[in-house]
Amino acid sequence: MISRFEKEILVAHALGLTRAQLIAKRTDELDAALYQPLLDRRAKHEPTAYIVGYQPFWGLDFIVDRSVLIPRPETELLVEKVIESYSHYLPAGRHGALPVTRISMADIGTGSGCIAITLAKNLPNVTVIGVDSSKEALKIAQKNAEYHGVADRCRFITGDMLEEFTTKAPRRQETQKLDIIVSNPPYIPTEVIETLEPEVKDWEPRQALDGGKDGLNYIRKLIVNAPNHLSIYPSGSLFLEIGFHQGPAVIELAEQTGRYSDIKIVKDLNGQDRIFTARVK
Ligand SMILES: C[S@@+](CC[C@H](N)C(=O)[O-])C[C@H]1O[C@@H](n2cnc3c(N)ncnc32)[C@H](O)[C@@H]1O
Known about the structure:
Function: Methylates the class 1 translation termination release factors RF1/PrfA and RF2/PrfB on the glutamine residue of the universally conserved GGQ motif.
Structural class: alpha/beta
Radius of gyration: 20 Å
Binding site for S-adenosyl-L-methionine: 109-113, 132, 184
CATH topology: Rossmann fold
Number of helices: 12
Number of domains: 1
Keywords: Methyltransferase, S-adenosyl-L-methionine, Transferase
CATH architecture: 3-Layer(aba) Sandwich
Order of helices and strands: HHHHEEHEHEHEEHHHHEHEE
Shape: globular
Number of strands: 9
Strand order of the largest sheet: 5-4-3-6-7-9-8
Bound molecules: S-adenosylmethionine
CATH class: Alpha Beta
Strand content: 15-25%
Catalytic activity: L-glutaminyl-[peptide chain release factor] + S-adenosyl-L-methionine = N(5)-methyl-L-glutaminyl-[peptide chain release factor] + S-adenosyl-L-homocysteine + H(+)
CATH superfamily: Vaccinia Virus protein VP39
Largest sheet: 7 strands, mixed
Helix content: 25-40%
Oligomer: single chain
Protein name: Release factor glutamine methyltransferase
């Protein structure tokens, strides 16, 4: 069942109208031959964002195709928490003034680039390295960075999580310490994926969803390895989106490393665990 809102988006897109222009028209003025194929695709559970080729996130439109996860509203909370922490990295007395330092971030599992690009657009002296294992996803991220005018402060590289930042990496690409590592990694337990709605399990990239048996494969790697790549002064931070049931396990993982302070779980609007934040000691 397609919601009226989605139907309006699809019909307006097919006819080259805004939603407001569409609503102002009479039904008999609309050429069904133009929009019916889009409604048929949606009826087969193809997500509206893939059909129209974009998805709004943080008030910006992001280009999407089947190689990337469709940006989710809950990920805006992750962006919000990073933005809130920004002043920690600015030299005292220069908040809001001309940037005097570069704040370096890595967005691990960048996908469409929605996190990296939104942060680059909102935080003027930030440079972001977006890492993804999917070359196809990175092409979309690059297009988005260009579209939003921040390609000069976003760089996208293929890699396996934080491997490109380690001294052991065969083609080591990155050497500097990072002020912030942010990630919305795949975190859905493998067997849960089959229970998800068809729009997700049949259309979105499996490698963007599957977090292994307990969903924590990538989160575990990030929590264990991030302190090796975060700056000590000012203390670097790790920000992760997590599954609603993963808060206690993620806190335990972070505490076991003994390398973090200020470990916090932030709940989303539904009162569910959603974001993990911590500073390196
Ligand atoms: C949940 S999606 C997040 C995409 C985007 N950051 C967002 O929030 O919409 C996870 C991303 O991690 C990428 N990924 C999966 N395994 C990876 C790995 N080993 N190293 C780097 N990225 C990986 C996927 O290709 C996917 O783009």
